[in-house]
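Annex B. Sample input.
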Amino acid sequence: MHTTHFLHNKGSSDAPIETAYFDIGAGAPLVLLHGFTGAKLDFADQMGWFADDHRVLALDQRGHGESSNQGPYLLETMTEDLFGFLDALDIGRCHLLGHSMGGMVAIRALLAQPERFASAILMDTTAYPLGLFTAKTRAQLTELIRAGGCVSMLDGMRHQRLSAAEQRGVDFVGEAEHWRRIRVKLEQMDTEAFIELMTHMENYDSRLEALAGVTTPTTVLVGAKDKPFIKPSKQMQRALPNGELKVIPKAAHCPQYENADAWRQAVAEHLAAASS
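Annex B, continued. Sample output.
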């Protein structure tokens, strides 16, 4: 496992935080942003694949992993955190990959400071709310985790039936290690981050039309079995002037695990094209 580094992040002037991150390799920086309930741990197995030619960094966003559990928990605040992270490490320009919620942050970063990004990968994400958490579901989850923390969701997750794609993701790291990582991420996640972000991600204004102004070379990646995100991915690709869509076969929401070879190839092809 990679060494965890920490830095003081002044990205949000109202709420500076400590950001935990992995940092390996050398070359043009590639920054990886995890999704909701995730962590830098979600890219620990994949970072080395690109480290011969890139400085690969994966950070824990606020409320997740080993970074500060401190609000406000908003996509806009997390975007400011990203710029603060880059500034603290004196990274003027980088390639950016955002997964799910991390992709929502990446979209906002591309719109705010496009000159900071040599290229972008928007992975299994959306530019507008998808209605994945109904009001009833939000209420039930809020009650559950206020009583027992985010880790109280683990038992229910273990009893859910996995699709073939999801099982391939489990098999990639092994059953025991998969559930160990899920437990670690849920234990580390701030209860308030879960509650606030769960609601926020269902109530923000669409950024789909605004993507027409993003000229950064961008690849939209999505797992072929990630049904809620297929349509949004196609719409983002059509909106982006320099957008390309790549569908990862036999993968769902986490293609870096569920079809690692195809995902690695897609990312490598994107980086090669962006660097040429």
